[in-house]
Amino acid sequence: MRESVMPALQVLRARTEELLASRVLESRDDWPRSVARALSIQLAADDVVRAVVQQARRSGVTWQTVGDALGVTRQAAFQRYGKPIDPRTGEPMNTTPLSGAAELASSVINELASAHWSRVTGRFDSTMRDGLSEDALAAAWAQLIGQSGAFESHGDSEAARAGDVTITNTPLSFEAGDYTARITFRDDQTIAGLYILSPEAS
């Protein structure tokens, strides 16, 4: 990513000028290309924000201040713009969530809601298989239904990288209660953690 603000601004300006010129020089009906150019402006603008955040951090600005400016928590700001160093290697850590993690979480939740316990446990890594049986998973889901009624729907998943895994958080709605499904995936798409959290816990 561009860490210097000026190069990032120059790219943003160039992409903006490309869009403006294209609306004059190209067919006005070529909306797919215009949308793609607009998206490139959005990505370039995010690079400008990233460069400014990195410059602010080098100047001693706290993640709390950055988060306040972005309208998010300091942790959310760090997860988006931080550069964590792996204490095991001294190298920058991979902060990119597993591709398709939100879709994976959705499919696991749909399998739980359909009582396909073996499909869910079949996705477990070895540690999860040793710690949570198919019967125990079914019993935990039944306990949720006993407390809050039938499962109704789930919302969009948020995914974030944490070390060697990707953690997804997905809102769940039951007849008489709301929860969050926190599912952790390894890079091979196996499940390393599965929790159903109350709103207070999540």
UniProtKB/TrEMBL annotation:
<dbReference type="InterPro" id="IPR024981">
    <property type="entry name" value="DUF3887"/>
</dbReference>
<dbReference type="Pfam" id="PF13026">
    <property type="entry name" value="DUF3887"/>
</dbReference>
<protein>
    <submittedName>
        <fullName>DUF3887 domain-containing protein</fullName>
    </submittedName>
</protein>
<feature type="domain" description="DUF3887">
    <location>
        <begin position="105"/>
        <end position="194"/>
    </location>
</feature>
